[in-house]
Design a protein that fits this description.
This protein has 268 residues and is α/β, with parallel strands linked by helices. 39% of the residues lie in helices and 14% in strands. The strands form two sheets. Strands 1-7-6-5-4-3-2 form a seven-stranded parallel β-sheet, sandwiched between helices. Strands 8-9 form a two-stranded antiparallel sheet. The N terminus is likely disordered.
Length: 268
């Protein structure tokens, strides 16, 4: 796939042969990181989350379930090398990839979910190559261990600094996940960025707000979440208030203005 064709087709150039398979998210992340395509843009769905699913934890079954549904992964709270090794193992098929992912016999339906992008590889090798694994670093411990994590687990495709969780874990004000200027925070972010640069790994995360804020938050990221369904739902509050006023029951009145409950009284 050439860069020119990728630009022309957009994300369709990275589409999987089946909607039941992860798209070529690993390649798309790497191409965005190398500047071959613009950053990937995402909508944060708190109500559902495919084609990239934020799994609730490190549970082996939950990781396999999300992958079987055709998703790539965002895995929270990775603090140590051992945790990183476990979650990546759960997401990969075969010992060649240090994988322990289950291969359910009825997961691959002939002609529907068993098509391969690269015919020189098995379907399981193709799926290993397609699904992206994005880990979230959400504590100072994770930041301190990130260099070792990326050294020991090179199959991690991108790293997301969970700013809100990391700041709270460091006993700093959450600031709505917008970061801060404390020296210990500045030093932690610099260490995170140095580890990504050393291992040539893409960054991921939020870029939400006005254009200048979005531009600043999105700098250097190849996978950017720029809005969320919960924000849109919160914005519906004004509409809800208007509907309540529109359909409110008529107010009772004790005045002698000749009107009660919206019905005109007859004058005797």
């Amino acid at each position: 796939m050439s860069t020119a064709s990728s630009d022309k087709q957009g994300m369709a150039a990275y589409r999987a042969p089946s909607l039941f398979q992860p798209h070529q998210a690993r390649k798309a992340l790497r191409d965005a990181h190398e500047g071959k395509i613009p950053p990937l843009l995402g909508l944060y769905l708190g109500l559902s989350s495919i084609p990239t699913a934020s799994v609730p934890g490190h549970d082996h079954a939950a990781i396999g379930y999300a992958l079987d549904a055709g998703a790539s992964l965002v895995i929270p709270q990775v603090d140590t090398v051992e945790q990183a090794q476990f979650v990546v193992s759960a997401a990969k098929f075969g010992t060649k990839s240090k994988g322990t992912r289950s291969a359910p016999p009825f997961r691959l339906i002939p002609g529907l979910t068993d098509m391969s992008i690269d015919s020189s590889k098995s379907i399981h090798e193709n799926l290993n190559d397609q699904a992206a694994i994005i880990i979230q670093i959400e504590s100072l411990e994770g930041i301190e261990n990130l260099d070792a994590i990326l050294t020991a687990v090179p199959d991690i495709d991108a790293v997301w600094l969970g700013t809100l969780d990391a700041r709270v874990s460091m006993n700093l004000p959450g600031n709505g996940g917008m970061g801060g200027t404390e020296q210990e925070w500045v030093d932690a972010v610099a260490k995170y960025q140095d580890a990504l640069k050393k291992h040539n790994k893409p960054a991921a995360g939020f870029a939400i707000g006005d254009p200048d804020t979005m531009r600043g938050m999105g700098k250097g990221k190849c996978f950017i979440i720029f809005t969320a369904d919960v924000l849109a739902l919160a914005g519906m509050a004004a509409g809800l208030q208007g509907a309540r006023e529109l359909f409110a029951l008529p107010q009772k009145s004790d005045s002698n203005d000749g009107v009660s409950n919206g019905i005109t009284k007859e004058t005797e």
